[in-house]
Amino acid sequence: MQSRSHTSQKLRTVPNSEVLISEHKYPGQRGGLTSDVYCTFGAERLKDYEMTFGRWRLKRLLKYLVAGMILIFCVYTIQMIVFVVKDLQCSEEESKQLIDKLCQEYKRKEVAGSLCSSLCDSSNILYHKCTNYKRGKRVLFAECTNSCINGSTIMTVLKSKNEKQDILSLPKNKKGDISEDGQRMARTIFLDTVYNSMHYQIPAGANVFSFLWSLDFNDFIHSSTWTYPIDVAFKSIWSLIQQDEYLFMKLYQKELHYIPRLYGTCGPFYFMEFAPPGKILNPTIFHPSRSSWKDRAKIALGILEIAQSLETHFHEPVHFCDIKEENFGIAEDKSVKILDTDSLFFDEIMMKILQDQKCTSHEDCDFFDCRGWCNKSGGKCNICEDIFINRAGNFYNGLLHDPPKDIAKDLNNLLEQCAYPNNNKGTIVRMPAAAEVHWKLYEILQKSIILLVIITGRDNKEI
């Protein structure tokens, strides 16, 4: 019997298959397949797949890299545009001209104030830079030595509105200064202005002019060498009390801890505390916030306290209609300050503004960030939506991002209830959150700070 031996052997690749079949020929046979079929992945095909997969992975990596670079470039460009736009909002040359003009008026004895001499004579107040001319308001930064706080050199903010103001026309005496009748008229006009703007009644027996100014009125007119001291004093006071921000800060300076400190005035300009938002409230791609949860929670508590005070401290609710991070500042003592009190409106004044205009939709009743109701009362502002949570306008994911794990779930639920009380995320919110939600939010933030202090054992340690 002829022995079965392999006389020849070759490998053949079967079409449409990824195996190799071993084909054996026997002596006397033209061809045929043995029952022993050896299958294995084709080395060449596997190598092709590896190369193809490698090229695909490399292409995907390159796409991600290019997309990332484009994204970084876009963010960088946007930030540069923002900086350029902010710079263009004011003019250094024009700002210096404003101060020169003010000092010329002071030297001509046309304006007065407690800080005129420091600005124009001794140079204890030196111009630093301008920041913006938003809504007709001039906002400048200056370095103040010994005049704002005795024995200290600090930054101060100079503000004044550039709008046309009402002219105060009062009867004068034979010497050309304001007559006694004119002084009585001025007193009545000033009292009415204060009440109509702020619903504030100056205490009985107080000198109205001294109460509203940075100088003692009687001391000024008796010690002044100016020809018409009463006229100059009245013009300076009148130019100040027509500015709502100055008037609000002046009247509530001692009552409210979140009002920036007033250092003094010169003509229509007032000098106030420098309390910038800083990286925590106003981070950028170039200056990101690396603040701890404790710091951010404390600032959030400060903002909640301000909101509560605006709701309950006054004879009627006060609406803050320009809520955004940069309108809150952090003082040296880490307390939160309102930087733009121009956007505070008493409820009655807000209602008059809204009622004077006809509406066909709720949007017609919106006033800056305060959202009204057509044919209904109200004006609603939302600190949770505008500052605390992550949304499109919050570059840094909201002030209360990345909370401790043990409160994260409860906190996020409360923030959702606060920002979107009707579960109406994605739409314009007009329904105020329940007061209970604000109190719960305050409580959970306070507890988180206390817990962190207990864990670390040090209140000053950054957490």
UniProtKB/TrEMBL annotation:
<comment type="similarity">
    <text>Belongs to the DIPK family.</text>
</comment>
<dbReference type="InterPro" id="IPR029244">
    <property type="entry name" value="FAM69_N"/>
</dbReference>
<keyword id="KW-1133">Transmembrane helix</keyword>
<feature type="transmembrane region" description="Helical">
    <location>
        <begin position="61"/>
        <end position="85"/>
    </location>
</feature>
<keyword id="KW-0256">Endoplasmic reticulum</keyword>
<keyword id="KW-0735">Signal-anchor</keyword>
<keyword id="KW-0812">Transmembrane</keyword>
<feature type="domain" description="FAM69 N-terminal">
    <location>
        <begin position="63"/>
        <end position="163"/>
    </location>
</feature>
<keyword id="KW-1015">Disulfide bond</keyword>
<keyword id="KW-0472">Membrane</keyword>
<dbReference type="InterPro" id="IPR011009">
    <property type="entry name" value="Kinase-like_dom_sf"/>
</dbReference>
<dbReference type="Pfam" id="PF12260">
    <property type="entry name" value="PIP49_C"/>
</dbReference>
<protein>
    <recommendedName>
        <fullName>Protein FAM69C</fullName>
    </recommendedName>
</protein>
<dbReference type="Pfam" id="PF14875">
    <property type="entry name" value="PIP49_N"/>
</dbReference>
<feature type="domain" description="FAM69 protein-kinase">
    <location>
        <begin position="237"/>
        <end position="420"/>
    </location>
</feature>
<dbReference type="InterPro" id="IPR022049">
    <property type="entry name" value="FAM69_kinase_dom"/>
</dbReference>
